[in-house]
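Record 1 of the preview.
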Amino acid sequence: MSSQDARNSTRWLSVVALGVTAVLGVVPGLAYADDDTPAGGCETVAVPVSTGGNLIGQLCGPVTRTDTVLVLVAGSAANRSYWDFPYQRERYSFQLAMARAGFATLALDRPGNGLALGPISGATPGNQPPAATTATADAQGVHEVVQALRHGTTDHQYRRVVLAGNAVGSGVSVLEASTYHDVDGMLLTGYSHSIDPPVAIQALPDFRPAAAVEPFAGRGFGPGWFTLEFTSDYAKRWYFGPDVDPEVVDTAQATRDVFSIAEWPDGLTATLPGPTSRITVPVLITAGSEDRLGCGTVCQDSATLHAAEAPYFAPAAQLQTYVQPRAGNMSLLAPNADELHHVVIDWMNATVPE
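->
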């Protein structure tokens, strides 16, 4: 490993010592008011995976059937509710915005959280070793979901599949795309090769063993299962504190989940030059201008981010970048989330048109 690779590994390990959250146990299907239902409606789908059990997610679509779907993978700090936030959906729901733009979305629960109760197997998490849930295993499961979407085993066949991730979910997406080469584009959020270890280390107090934190205590979580505890500095680290709506923070706390520490060691490889250099489809990286956790000091503007990230990608990636002003790591939950939605929609229309 080169000295540059070693530095990148250290950066990811430090930040990855950050990423975890959302509500364990069965999460009921989300209910919508008439005025904020994605145009074509939503349904819960379960896709069997070879490692056992199902990966479960919320599939939403526009009124007119589309051949394009985005597969959404949240970070350690969230389950599928991150993409369809249950507070002020008109402002924060990525799935609602994409449906209105004509795209289908499938927001997945990573193994071990949301409706995917056990590490891929679907069993009670406390009865499963956390080592069963790694970023590589997550990527394999996402690959099988992509194949199911392409072959019509969900609702119908999709000809174009785009992966979208946040934080560790972006790492899983990088591992999937660089290994299986079966998607048409990638959206990476809360992700870069420029993580700042000292800043990441400051966030370590936000994370605690799931067995020590309500409502997860007493549910059988052994060593290796963690969750996010909302400390006094949480909002400053994960959002842009001066702008974040306190109700957003409260809702994020109400929907927090658990994660396996085993996702981190192989997840760190997603920020090394190798995996991203093997991606051969268009890539859009978006970041919050105030995201010191996932973006270090390279997110002053879109041009600076592009200059920092371009060396890690092949020309085939046609790399584009966008820095969202006054947003932190959880950029979809910034008050100006609609600006990010519009950037993604424009990129989708230009990159994977119907």
